[in-house]
Amino acid sequence: MDRDILEELGVGVSWGIGPWRIGRSGYGTWWISVGIPRTGIRFSKVIYRPRRNWNSQIPAATELPTMPEHVELPSNVSQPLTPNQQILKEMEIESTRARST
């Protein structure tokens, strides 16, 4: 009762008897599952997942686009404060009031 499952990075395989199955995905992940026959309900559990080296997939810093650190807006352009900026402004006003009294 072998069944091949095509996946993005390769071919996965699973074996089973009745509602019980064990398999290996094309990614190298091993799993077990049990299902209720004729209902489509199945419980699966990953029992082994290989570690991946994600650092090799991150481009080097020289390949990333550079962004300016700060962009100055013209003096005649005013932007509304965000809610967090409004809270900070109110806190600063309250702290200066408290210091002056």
Can you describe this structure?
The structure is a single chain. This protein has 101 residues and is of the alpha+beta class. The chain has a domain at 3-52. Helices cover 18% and strands 33% of the residues. It contains 1 helix and 5 strands. The protein has one helix at residues 83-100, and strands at 3-7, 10-17, 20-24, 30-36, 41-48. It has a 5-stranded antiparallel beta sheet with strand order 1-2-3-4-5, with no helix packed on it. It is elongated, with a radius of gyration of 29 Å. The chain starts with a strand and ends with a helix.
Task: Output the keywords.
five-stranded antiparallel sheet; alpha+beta; disordered N terminus; 18% helix
